Amino acid sequence: MSPTIYTIILSSLATGTIVTMTSFHWLMAWIGLELNTLAIIPIISTLHHPRSTEAATKYFLTQAAASAMILFSSMINAWNTGTWDITQMSYAPSNILLSLALALKLGLAPAHFWLPEVLQGSTLLTALIITTWQKLAPMSLIYMTMINLPSTILLVLGLTSSTVGGWSGLNQTQTRKIMAYSSIAHLGWMAMIASIMSNIMIMNLVVYLMMTTALFTSLICSKSKTIQDTATTWTTSRTLAIIMMLLLLSLGGLPPLTGFLPKWLVLEELIMQNLIPMATAMAMSALLSLFFYLRLTYTTTLTLPPNTLQMKFKW
């Protein structure tokens, strides 16, 4: 792709998110989401490979369906309340529809099936954009409509996402799919706390964005597409291997690393709200995620692939 076209596409991607985040009218928010979707499609399909074309098609269909549902829910709300204001979502059926649409947009379980497939069909850099930047616009909509969204639905979505993200990541060998399930699990934690305390949700999102970006950058540097590839990361750079180990453990939520803090605060807040069974289930699901992160850490830093004394390192 030529640099000019790439620049236009990336600026459209940025514009779409910013339009959604700064709008108070539902139609403007919808335009931002559509701009976002249309800009990422050519980025996914740049490989000109059947897998990337399939990924682009899947992404387009799910995002278009979710955007249509968001527009439909806001129309129902406008019909009943007479306002297009995002913060004035007071009609219950439209709130339920909106929360389901945003779940599909973000890839929360049980509407998560498109995310691992799309990431697997795209490059590591595109996967990074999809798992980080593309989550900002829907999360900002959740943040703006949080007061009115049904908390029960958000709690259920959060719990299922965290469990599915942990459970499904266990039998994956592709790093992109592992990162997709990791994304689903982390978004589950954010959905869980969204209706209770928004500040923790924002902190959770920021920590998730930083760690995911750092880990994807490490994977891009070491060209690791499978768990087998991560075993040879240390031949590229020993520092990179250590950083990857810390990032993986941090994503898993192992104390005293950064990723433990959001999980700790979420669990604390859930207990304060007397949702002890929910907090217990979330802690258990975090153990599932931690298992596959530990496995990845093990192959990255604690095992040596077969090598000879004369073997040359990339560094």
UniProtKB/TrEMBL annotation:
Cellular localization per UniProt: Mitochondrion inner membrane
Domain NADH dehydrogenase subunit 2 C-terminal: 290-315
Keyword flag Metal-binding: no
Primary localization: mitochondrion
Topology term for the membrane: Multi-pass membrane protein
EC number, as in UniProt: 7.1.1.2
Reaction(s) this enzyme catalyzes, per UniProt: a ubiquinone + NADH + 5 H(+)(in) = a ubiquinol + NAD(+) + 4 H(+)(out)
Species in which this protein is naturally found: Anolis cristatellus
UniProt name for this protein: NADH-ubiquinone oxidoreductase chain 2
Membrane-spanning segments: 59-76, 96-115, 136-158, 178-195, 202-220, 240-262, 274-294
Enzyme class: translocase
